[in-house]
Amino acid sequence: MLVTFPPPAATPPEAPLKVCPQGFTCCTLEMEEKLSQQSHSEIKAPVSTSSTTLQTSFKQRHDHFDNFFRELLKNAELSLHNMFVRTYGMMYVQNAELFKNFFEALTRYYVSGGAAVNLDSMLSDFWADLLERMFRLVNVQYEFDDAYMECVSRHTEQLQPFGDLPRKLGIQLKRSFIAARTFVRGLALMPEVFNKVSTVSASPSCVRAAMKMLYCPYCSGQVALKPCENYCLNVMRGCLANQADLDTEWNNFLDAMIGLAERLEGPFNFESVMDPIDVKISEAIMNMQENSMQVSQKVFQGCGQPKPSMAFRSRRSVKETGFTGRFRPYSPDARPTTAAGTSLDRLTNDVRKKLKQAKKFWSTLPETVCEGERIAPGDDCWNGTAKSRYESVVIGNGLANQVSNPDVDVDITKPDIVIRSQIAVLKEMTSWLKAAHSGNDISIDNDEDSSGEGEESGSGCDSAPCETDRDIYFSTPPPPVQPKVNQVHSSGSSAGVASRGSAALALCGLALALLAPHLR
Questions:
Q1: What pTM does this model have?
Q2: What DSSP line would sit under 399-435, residue for residue?
Q3: Backbone angles phi, psi at 9, to 5 degrees
Q4: SS3 112
Q5: What whole-number distance in Å separates Cα of residue 232 and Cα of residue 230?
Q6: What's the confidence (pLDDT) of residue 140?
Q7: Hey, which residues does 142 pair with through a beta bridge?
């Protein structure tokens, strides 16, 4: 249903306009209010499109990385199982629970970190348990009670039955897992930041300024007139002042993500640690087998001579009771493809490019709006009052610079709470990323609250396009202030006034025809 308008007025309407210049006008106060809502939507649309594109992109990359790491864990467990069944047969099958628990613990550590699993303790217990089981197998002619086996476990580090492999593998696992899970958390945070910032509403002064910039030319009959570029930039930098303040911490966060991605490609490569883990554990077992006599003698010296087993009736030698299988050679070139359909180095190469492209996103949002067909180049443009050059200087980005904004009233003493909270979140995440870059995990105290993060966190945008029906990226409304009204005074003879009035009537008729679709 079309909205009907009164005929164009050749004189100012009874109720003066609040935003557009007074004088000859095609608009009423009611039309001006509706056009304000329309202008808000028009400046929100390009910002929403840009943010949704990035939000979707990083949500997809989070899912790719998370699925990749999880499937690497599953593949590693399956590979070990198949290899050990072939190599060790029933001796592995009877002890398979030990390895199953090992991978379950690694998965919990990846998902929830140190709050769920103390990796050092878990690995120490795994090797001690493996030593206990192997020690019994290579010494089946003896009988060991629980106290004796506790003595064996206490001396695991001194005995080094598995060589130096447990220490080296522990370092590799810790560094690669910390890097992987922290990087995934960083990717998950990005859609969350976009979601939080999308709850920030436009301020009344921003809406008035957008209306004045976009639709006051219509009201004066200048339907084809577009805003001057610098005028548009000042309006948008006022509207997006709080968002621009995110830029510094956002860029620091992205730099830390890029640095950790390089670590994932190099010394902290999760894939190169998990893929051959079955071979490494098998090497440790073989090392124990080959040195079983020396290890047993050291244990007997430290823990005492065990009692002969009454149940031992076989004449098989000690050597015949041990592990006799051999493991397959590992080729580092045989790298698997997983749920992501690619290897880790290709994933990280792709995401590093996207991270670099996302830098300075918040501070360049005004340029995103003020480009292309939305603005007019040169001096033939709308400067807020007339078709002429825009004389004001373009102010800088950020809340502090808006004190001198000539087009938007911004209260620089009241920074937006949501924006400030996201700045703090980014700063904290950056510190975790930098710690992970050094192989350290400082996020343990926070892991308990986000233990399900691996599956649920970072759900920012499930599919493209995301919801765009919310107010996107504008300042929290300050207390209402009276709008400034720029009066347009006419001068000259009455004949000149009548002539201009006739021309204005014709232009207003055209303007109303073009405005009608916006005011339905």
A1: 0.78
A2: SGGGGG-SS----TTS--HHHHHHHHHHHHHHHHHHH
A3: -95, 130
A4: helix
A5: 5
A6: 87
A7: 308
Query: Residue written as tokens 């006739």?
Result: 502
Distance CA 70, CA 90 (A): 28
Residues 6+ apart with CB under 8 A from 395: 234, 237, 238, 401, 402, 404, 405, 406
- The type of residue at 302 is G
User: Tokens in use for 474?
Assistant: 């504008």
Those residues whose C-beta lies under 8 Å from the C-beta of residue 232, and which sit 6 or more positions away, are 213, 366, 369, 370, 374, 375
96 in helix, strand or coil? helix
226-279: pLDDT as tens digits = 999 999 999 999 999 999 999 999 999 999 999 999 999 988 999 999 999 999
Q: What's the one-letter identity of residue 472?
A: I
Q: How far apart are CA 289 and CA 285, in angstroms?
A: 6
pLDDT under 50: residue ranges of the chain: 1-13, 314-340, 445-507, 510, 512
Q: Which helix (H) or strand (E) holds 167?
A: helix 165-197
| Whole-angstrom distance, CA of residue 309 vs CA of residue 487 | 107
Contact at 8 Å (CB) between 187 and 58?
Answer: yes
Which pLDDT belongs to residue 20?
84
Q: Work out whether strand 307-308 and strand 142-143 pair parallel, antiparallel, or are unpaired.
A: antiparallel
Among left, alpha and beta (phi > 0; psi -120 to 50; other), residue 23 is left
* pLDDT per position as a tens digit, 403-426: 999 999 999 999 999 999 999 999
